[in-house]
Amino acid sequence: MALRAVIGGTFLVHSLTFLGVLSAPAGHVSGLRQGLVAFGDRLHYRWPKLMLWLVVAGEGVGAILCLSGFLLPLPCFIFALIVGQGIYMRRRHGFTLEEGYEHHLNLFVAIIALAALGAGSVSIDGMLGWNDALSGVSVAVSVAVLAVVMSVVFLSIMRVRPAPERAGRA
């Protein structure tokens, strides 16, 4: 239950920060306007508004499902899909905390571990008797593989390759 609360809470706070309900420290994305700039100018998504709303909705709905322990593999997949893209996009910075993929990799592993462990008895899945059917190694591997494959597909559709920098430009 603690892992579910931390992961669900993390994504809920992130979604609320994108919406501008919570504010982030200076230099970090806070609010829809900054989110649009981040997804468009900085991350080079083809449709930044669509991408922003997919992330906000995925993180928000996923957080509610995760925190309540309802259909836990679904929010785990959503979170792993989002974090998987983050790992890919930060790979050029290496395994560094500030701009690299270290945080995203740790979060990805925690999400997959949560899928393996399941929601537990104090959850909607547990109360409905679904926890055993919606957890385990096969569920975790399925979530991880599907998230990685879908991250690659999603990035190939949604992202535009940034224009190369030209020598001599200021």
Morphology call: globular
* SSE pattern, N- to C-terminal: HHHHHHH
Q: Gap between N and C termini, in Å?
A: 52 Å
Task: Flag low-confidence runs.
Answer: 166-170
> What is the number of helices?
7
Count of domain modules: 1
**Mean pLDDT over the residues:** 89
Proportion of helical residues = 55-70%
Main sheet properties = none
The Cα radius of gyration reads 17 Å
Overall structural class, as computed from helix and strand content, comes to mainly alpha
Oligomer: single chain
- The overall strand count is 0
Describe the structure.
The protein is an all-alpha fold and 170 residues long. It has one domain. It has helices spanning 2-19, 32-42, 48-68, 73-90, 102-117, 124-127, 137-158. α3 (48-68) packs across α4 (73-90). The longest helix is centred in the last third of the chain and has 22 residues, at 137-158.
Question: What is the topological layout?
Answer:
Elements: H1 2-19, H2 32-42, H3 48-68, H4 73-90, H5 102-117, H6 124-127, H7 137-158
Helix pairs in contact: 1-3, 2-3, 3-4, 4-5, 4-7, 5-7
Brief overview:
The chain has 170 residues and is mostly helical. The protein has one domain. The protein is built from 7 helices and no strands.
Spell out the key features of this protein.
globular; 170 residues; 7 helices; mainly alpha; 0% strand; disordered C terminus
